[in-house]
Amino acid sequence: MSEHAKVPADEEASEEESDESEQAPVTTGAQSVVRALENAGAEYIFGVQGGAIMPVYDALYDSDLNHVTMAHEQGASHAADAYGIVTGKPGVCFATSGPGATNLVTGIADANMDSDPMIALTGQVPTEFVGNDAFQETDTVGITQPVTKESYFAADSDTVGDNVGEAFALADAGRQGPTLVDLPKDITQGETDVEPSEPTTPDTYEVQEEADDAAVQEAAEALAAADRPVILSGGGVIKADASSALREFAMEYEIPVITTMPGIGSFPEDHELSLEWAGMHGTGYANMAISNTDCLLAIGTRFDDRLTGGVDSFAPDAEVIHVDIDPAEISKNIYADYPLIGDARKVLRQLFDAMPRVPDVDEWREQCQTWKDEYPMTYDTPDDEPLKPQYVVEKFSDMTPDDTIVCTGVGQHQMWASQFWEYTEPRTWVSSHGLGTMGYGVPAAIGAKLAAPDQEVVCFDGDGSFLMTVQGLSVAVREQLDITYVVLNNEAVGMVRQWQDGFYEGRRMASEYPWIPQFDKLAEAFGARGFRLEAQEDVEETIEAAREYDGPSVIDAHIDPGENVFPMVPSGGDNGRFALQEDHLEEL
Amino acid sequence: MTGGMPGPSPHDRMHPKGRRNKQGIRIDPEAEVTHEPRQAVLSALVKHKPGVLSEVSALFSRRQFNIESLTVGPTVDDDTARMTILIEEPEPGIDQAKKQLRKLVPVIEVTELDPTAVRRELALIKVGGEKPDDVNAVAEMYDGQAVDASTDSVTVEITGSKQKIDAAVEAFKQFDVQEVVRTGAAALERGPKTLEKHD
Ligand SMILES: Cc1ncc(C[n+]2csc(CCOP(=O)(O)OP(=O)(O)O)c2C)c(N)n1
């Protein structure tokens, strides 16, 4: 069970009036920290105890906030990250000083790359020891500064609550991202009667919500005049809750839509205007369209190299309209002919109103359809053996409701989960993109499930990724979380092996894992349900059994170890020159 | 090896004519755009609090901006400090540097100073003490002055542009330069214009 607050029953009714919402005044810095989280609307905290953070945990004892003890701090930060993706509000994680804080860093860096809202609170040695290499001291602010929106060092018991409130508000504001507050033990233990004020962003932090009208008008004219327009919808569209605005816009003006990988779910993949996602392992049709478009409306994307390939060959004919809330993303990687700075939802509304007409692009849409027919997302099923990972994903997708949340680790399985699952809703795709963190899946599914208890949660993992955070299963069992983990087991770090076969003459150095444990038995040892899946004919039945089990289950799916991910644009390559099979790689 | 997908091979596909350069700019076939590096002087007002300098300098190293010098000092307002940062980058790099700086939470305002801005650097140069009169003469040539002298050494202070100081250091080499310390540039816009929040 979550460690719900055990609220002491000594509610001494105040003499004048008994106002239920009135809380006891804070008396310590730690109480102020917890009060600030409550004020900010936090619900769950993922963390691990320890000496330096103990005063804050002690204050949590009297709070209604739910704390979930994780098995490793990396899991705490990934769970908080996933919670943030699914709810749209900052996820919260706690760790103690030193190793606790350093263990959080991977998840913080991950959130930073994907602009996921998150706040991390770390214990620190008492102020008088800071800088002395005290027991369990690390320079947490120094370590995390490059991977947060801002890292705070709390220096005063009277203001520590405001630090937390500000960090929380900042994580959520503008372009979302992680923040951290480092909490020296004497500061949280210290006495204070100062109540934290309402969480507000720092006065130096300004966000431009609406784009300049004249610029919007120019961009709209360019888009309406284009012969081969495409919308590229990034993760920012989901972050800005702009998915429905995007749908309206695309459908009204009949412009084909491509998503980035983090943008999966921002536009329904079953809609005829959808070309699904572009990039290294994106669909052939998305990559053809992006290579041949003459006007790219890119929204909430930072043009990561996994999307663009080599910038010299990216959308080479296109004028680029770039909508982003972060001015620093404009012309960072791809030059924007029409920069529109603002919130994706608001700017889409502005653009909608500014469009002079529906662009005349029947021919272009037909061309896109031709590409869909030419490069279908299918896979080889010569016989039913060995089991194909794509089949497992596809079947699972068919069997579940539209709002099912899919989490993943990192590797080939992640690509199959993004290619062969049909996504139609935002906030249903929870994966590690920018950092590409193996081990993300197990704890992310925990955060996702707690964020959306009424939605089904499935995690596709690789055997390598699963092993990195498998201890998180103990948490899923303790909390009785109804999650289905599917390990697409190829007894290898498959993505590495694919690259070795493609680019290193098959020299499989350190990529094969023939000593992998039996995951179904491992699951049982943790107290979860375990299933072993080998044959195609058992797929449906096994998935059904795992879904029916009310608690965490693990399907150890032994897949064809020779299966590789296609299409593929080689790193830094030209998106229009993707390989559809192994021997195409040699041509590129 | 399995896992192939159907469709025409890479060479049988329709392919666009266009191209971009390494900075992601669409290349106009007539006038190819490339940006040569140039020097820029950035002036930033920041909150005067611990860790700001490391945050700013870490930003520059992390993003691989080619930094020439960075100076920082207090302003008339106790709560703010001012940094002068010289970078040498192609135009898009300078643009990025400004935007990334602005993004840092403790940064209040950033501007690029006009090339005509007043730019000064200070150097202290310690040379051998054998010929104090000659040292003085050279110092005067550069509007400098001796600020310390002993039997073995003379320390001279020079203020001015980077070029002037480069030249002075060069000129002092005849006296056995023992140590040099330079501050890097501090700069302010000419005329009444100041750098304040909201311009
Ligand atoms: C923490 C971490 N270490 C190493 C890598 C490099 N890497 C990327 S994909 C991959 C293989 C992943 O293997 P597995 O989880 O078994 O998935 P598969 O590719 O076999 O589906 C590796 C090692 C990484 N992304 N993250």
From TrEMBL, chain A:
Pathway(s) per entry: Amino-acid biosynthesis; L-valine biosynthesis; L-valine from pyruvate: step 1/4; Amino-acid biosynthesis; L-isoleucine biosynthesis; L-isoleucine from 2-oxobutanoate: step 1/4
GO CC terms in record = acetolactate synthase complex
Keyword Ribonucleoprotein found: no
A molecular function GO annotation? magnesium ion binding
Q: Which cofactor does it need?
A: Mg(2+); thiamine diphosphate
Question: What's the Enzyme Commission number for this chain?
Answer: 2.2.1.6
Q: Any idea where the Thiamine pyrophosphate enzyme central domain is?
A: 216-351
Q: Where is the composition biased (Acidic residues)?
A: 10-22
Single GO biological process annotation from the record: isoleucine biosynthetic process
Q: Which stretches does the entry tag as region Disordered? A: 1-29
| Top EC class of this enzyme | transferase
Instruction: Kindly provide the name given to this protein in its UniProt entry.
Output: Acetolactate synthase
Gene coding for it:
ilvB
